[in-house]
Amino acid sequence: MFRQSKTFLSKLKYLRVRNREVGRPSSTSAAERALQYGVGQKIHGFTVRQVTAVPDLFLTAVRLDHDVTGAQYLHAARDDSNNLFSVQFRTTPMDSTGVPHILEHTVLCGSRRFPCRDPFFKMLNRSLSTFMNAFTASDYTMYPFSTQNAKDFQNLLSVYLDAVFFPSLRELDFWQEGWRLENENPTDPSSPLVFKGVVFNEMKGAFSDNESLYAQHLQNKLLPDHTYSVVSGGEPLIIPDLTWDQLRNFHSTHYHPSNARFFTYGDLPLEQHLKQIQEEALSTFQRTEPNTAVPAQTHWDRPREAHVSCAPDALAPDPAKQNTLCVSYLLGDITDTFEAFTLSILSSLMISGPNSPFYKALIEPKIGTDFSSVVGYDGSTRDAFFSIGLQGMAEEDLQRVQGIIRQTLDDIIATGFEEERIEALLHKIEIQMKHQSSNFGLALASYIASCWNHDGDPVQLLKVSESVSRFRRCLQENPRYLQDKVQHYFKENPHKLTLSMSPDEQYLEKRSLAEHEKLQQKVQALTDTDRKDIYEKGLQLLSEQSTTQDSSCLPALKVSDVEPTIPHTPVQMGTAGGVPVQYCEQPTNGMVYFRAVCNLNTLPEDLKMFVPLFCSVITKLGSGGLDYRQQAQRMELKTGGMFVTPQVIPDIADLDLYEQGILLTSSCLERNLPEMFQLWSDIFNSPRFDDEERLRVLVMMAAQELSNGIASSGHMYAMTRAARSLTPTANLQETFSGMTQVKFMKRLAEMTDVTSVLRKLPRMKRHLLNADNMRCAVNATPQKMADATVEMERFMDNIASTRKERKPVRPVIVERPLDPHAPTGSVASRKLISEPNFKPCQLKTYFELPFPVNFASECVRTVPFTHEDYASLCVLGRLMTAKFLHGEIREKGGAYGGGARMGGGGLFSFYSYRDPNCSQTLAAFRKGVEWAYDGKFTQQDVDEAKLSVFSTVDAPIAPSDKGFGLFLSGISDEVKQTHRERLFAVTHKNLTDVAGRYLGFGQSTCGVAVLGPENEGIKKDPSWVVK
Ligand SMILES: [Zn+2]
Q1: Which candidate in 104, 211, 515, 835 is catalytic?
Q2: Over the stretch 681-691, which tens digit does the pLDDT of each residue have?
Q3: What is the pTM of this model?
Q4: DSSP states of 836-878
């Protein structure tokens, strides 16, 4: 995987506390035990350097060095069972061959102790990991995993250590993962030679995404003196210059303990980790001088400008407006953690939300569709930078925008920021620290990665409230503190890049021509012996990929290691003003979480299409006495955000039954509960629908965001589309979030006057924000629940006027009780729509898009969640993915990813991601079914697939989300337990049986959809609908 930069605040968003020990005596907590370590203490080849309590995050940080190699180590001890390990290396390439990225892939292909093919992917099925991955950033490569099981932790640690320090790095692995010349048809030596390779295709895909392309160019040009001037992921046209030798050489210099940083997190004891790391890896190494440091960027003495081209965006809201421009400023060294903190806050004040000066100056005049994809503070490189600009602009506005940017900076220097906005931002930081997430270890690892990579102090970075107090002091001492920073870093800074990007109709043609030339160059240089060699290696690779390999060298958990029963989540059912409310007491660390579902049953059909738009704007138009700016400010000051999203919820027992609604979500600190409900009351009672200009801005931003998302989530769009004709649920889901919605929003964004849309909103509001169609859920601490109940009552009183009995549009409504334990007919229920006459049909749709890669999907209608075969289909999806489809679609086909999975709506879906060849993949889906039906897999394979299903089923759930499945879909603990028991019971015979019964040709109805480049074969085939 290739990861591009993330800004400081967007990282902070993931830095959320998970602490299940709040309120409990903590005398034996992991954090307290870790405080016992003494500086200078020797443990298994390491020496303790620093022990620091970080009470904000309920953890103790222990820093150590490895005595012989100098490897650095940070342990964060915390009472969280979701333990995490990560090792990162500073990888600073000086060319764009993608050597760190290809290395990241290749080390996962087998190692000294685990010489089988692809141990990494195999471990996905032999473990209960909650996360396993590897990332290549611009200047480091990171290998993290997390798991809640101690034995699993040791197993995964062995595999990870061996992979990074003792990989096999075979030539064939390099060929498969990196790049190779191969006969188009490997078994036919007369077929033309073409480029293949997983990373080669992955990067072609990444470069087809205009947002990534722009971000890449920007970094390369703003930081041109060292490693940031190259593409660490690999520029597709340069990747074929990399040799196997260069790859091995890069490994030996960069993947050395002296260039490594280890991070562990959680409640498992540190000693055990150190012992294992020492024994299995570090003890065989001596110290080296890795020489991988990145020097500070030399500051320019005058600003620079640059221009780049991209492919036209077929889905851009306005085809004449596709220019991007942004101005970037080099800031300071990210290892100065307080300065970095200040600058990231400054950045948010400048660009976040409708009250920020750049939002007012750039977004509201509607010069472009949205901010440029790179915007704000970016601290992922050694020198941080700040960018500001727009996308979706007409060419003639480029100059004007630069003038506005200069003027806005001057205005900020002159007037500064309102105190209330600064308070709102600091409140946001407080909420982010209190909110408890289920993957806190991973969030920490990526939060500290960049700063630590350049030898900054990772522990200092964790002391967030220390930074907040220091920031407040600076503001007190100097009221112009922030304005002076703007003066210094922006106004007086000559290291400034103005980068514009515009579409070129010939862009893709030029790219493929350049690729063709590169290919010719390589091919012409070949001798007959080379060609013969290529053919033979192609066959060898194919035969290796086709043989089943013995993976018994790998450690594995057993199905018997999985807990037989799920923990019970108690909830109380109540009512407030007649509206059903589910209360769930949880250790939420002083936060309250509110959710509500309002059904769409009375909404006229002609307004359905507008539901996603209604959701995205209803909390952003102003309400009650507040205009949209004041409303946004209030939300920032008093809540953790307020969101509304469309929901299509499949019934768990009937495929032609579903609930349609919108979901309201918000959270707040306990002290702000009344204010949060006041904001919702205002939205229910008096939302503002009078500002056409405001609506246009929001429509444009929403359309741009949808259009930008396709290149990175194409497989989701393909799956949603393929499912559309199979169930009424999937049909409505496609309307709300599929290509239909993307095209609909594009049309709205093209309208010069959205008054007609604006007029629909109050009509919709009467149906959607109606207390009669509503049910609610609250998660809070036991101590706060009584207050929450009182506030719920008051809220329902306040919105009582919205109640109006209306007739449902569809006649057939089926009721499902909210409380599964209550006697039937006695309590509140969810009202589902039944479409007994829905006729599933076969449909094949092709979306022609300007991408060089495909996203393909096939979906099959099977059975609902409570059906006895559902568990077998879940296991079958994992089994086919791991044992067949991965090999066919990724290893042989060269796609970045592909597989099959069973979905909650009773649809079994196949998919591929960034795929060079769709017809071969569609055939592989079918071959997968035959393979499963033939039953040529072992009991071990079945057990592995089960483990992999359980690792998802048992993924940790944050206190804020406990009980949510019951609330939303009616999945009770009993239903979950039944599903669990069925998963345990799945046999080899069940799997071949369901493969034949549901997935075989002619057995069920299936749909197919592909997003990809122009495809002559499909155009000629009348069975396809080409869009
Ligand atoms: Zn990758």
Answers
A1: 104
A2: 999 999 999 99
A3: 0.87
A4: TT-----EEEEEE-S-SSBEEEEEEE---TTSTTHHHHHHHHH
